[in-house]
Amino acid sequence: MISVRGVRKAFGSATVLDGIDLDVHSGEVVSILGSSGSGKSTLIRCMNGLEKLDGGRITIDDFDVSRPKELSEARKRSATVFQLFNLYPHMTAVQNIALAPVEVLKIPRKQAEADARTLLDSVGLSARADAFPAQLSGGQRQRVGICRALAMKPRYLLLDEITSALDPEMTSDVLAILAKLAHDGTTMVFVTHEIEFARTISSRIVFLDKGQLVVDLPTAEFFAADGGMAKPRIAQFLSKMRKD
Amino acid sequence: MLALAGSLCIGTVVAALVTSASPLLSRIAYVYVDLFRNIPFIVQLFFFFYGLPEIGIYIDAFTTGVIALSIAGGAFTSDVIRSGILSIDPGILEAAEVSGLSKPTIFRKIVMPIALRTSVRPLGSVFINLILTSSILSTITLNELTGSAKIVASDTFRPFEIYAVLLVAYACLTYLVSLAIGALHRYLNRDQTEAA
User: B145-155 pLDDT, tens per residue?
Assistant: First the structure.
């Protein structure tokens, strides 16, 4: 379980997260919604230990991400996919995916690369396995990014606006992969602006506004007229997103 | 060759220290770079060869030459590698960090290969400069190319021919380094050429 308790984070005088409480249980798909600057990406960055907390505590399977000795264990259990892919430019797709399994999980290189090719095949990229990131389209790069995360066999997948840099066609390719992962029972926490997609695959929806958690509801309740939609801020947000 | 390898090793370590999270290590590395980059090489050389024996440290001319060139070259090399490291997209390093890779592994497998993609050409200039600077070693009785040429010229009284050969020798040597650096640059950036 990912447990977030009373998390506070500020950059200078700007408070970005203000007392966030959240639990993510195994098998859940939790979407984090909110307008730009609401703290969604910062929350993901706090979960994977990229940001130091100013207060509160985050544990992944009881490993505290704020403690250096426990962070490596927490990171073995979670994997992150980034908005801008962040692939290693000097390595091929296979090498990008196999690096961490070889170095961290100590899987023999041949096996790790065979596993990487299987993963690439599952996302329709077997023909591009030996291509460098610069030779791939945005959607292909993001699919490699997802494979790189899955190669670590994580219990939790953290996804930070992974379709924001993609065009609609590429977005649908990537979302199809996420839908498959959700169907297979992968635990996911994802920050997204794809409202309808979040509605389709999420078990819960969390809405952040100005660093505070406004609602945390099962998906059906979130979109119900007497549920999340009853809150003016959420209704306004959803209305704007649907117009866009 | 030893001095080139030495300056690359020293430069890599110093660049790692300069860009490290430790303010103390970073400060020490900066002092080294500022010190050896801003003092004429011949002064450093004389200090090592003529100065150190006065306090009981005797090093032969060859070893002094290699050490002095490595230390002086390391200061320039570290600056080039540092700028390559700083040009890396921080998101790439974050991706490596969250995947659980250790700091030494990230430096070895991610940071250096990416930094070298942009640094390799300026590194070539540093290396060529080191080869040319090595001619100064003749001032401490070390018979490298220039020192040997001086001896032969004074023995044969044929300075025109001897120094003409020396000119060609230095030109060939530096041209070979340029070719090697060019090949390494193309290899490290092969994804760009293949993508184009």
Answer: 888 888 888 88
Q: Give the integer Cα–Cα distance in Å for B132 and B146.
A: 10
Q: Chain centroid to CA A119: how far?
A: 18
Question: Does pTM surpass 0.80?
Answer: yes
- Extract the tokens encoding A191: 């920050």
Domain A2-241 architecture: 3-Layer(aba) Sandwich (3.40)
Q: Could you give the dihedral angle defined by the CA atoms of residues B178, B183, B187 and B188, in that order, rounded to the nearest 10 degrees?
A: 0
User: Chain B partners of A78 at a C-beta cutoff of 8 Å?
Assistant: 98
Q: Are strands A156-160 and A78-81 parallel, antiparallel or unpaired?
A: parallel
pLDDT digits (tens, 9 = 90+) for B137-196: 878 877 778 888 888 888 888 888 888 998 998 899 899 999 999 999 999 998 886 554
Query: Which residue in this structure is represented by tokens 């041949």?
Result: A110
| Min Cα–Cα distance to chain B from A159, Å | 12
**Residue B110 and residue A148: Cβ atoms within 8 Å?**
no
| Residue B188 with chain A: CB contacts under 8 Å | 90
**Domain ranges across chain A:** 2-241
> With bands split at pLDDT 50, 70 and 90, how would you rate the model's confidence at B58?
confident
Write the CB contacts of A25 (distance below 8 Å, at least 6 apart in sequence).
A1, A187
Question: What does the block give as tokens for B53?
Answer: 């024996």
- Asked whether A172 and A202 are in contact (CB, 8 A), the reply is no
Burial class (CB in 10 A: 0-12, 13-18, 19+), A19: middle
Report chain A (244 residues): mean pLDDT per 10 consecutive residues: 94 93 92 90 94 94 92 91 92 96 95 95 91 92 92 92 81 84 87 85 91 91 80 79 67
Residues with Cβ within 8 Å of B82's Cβ and at least 6 positions away in sequence, in order, are: B15, B18, B19
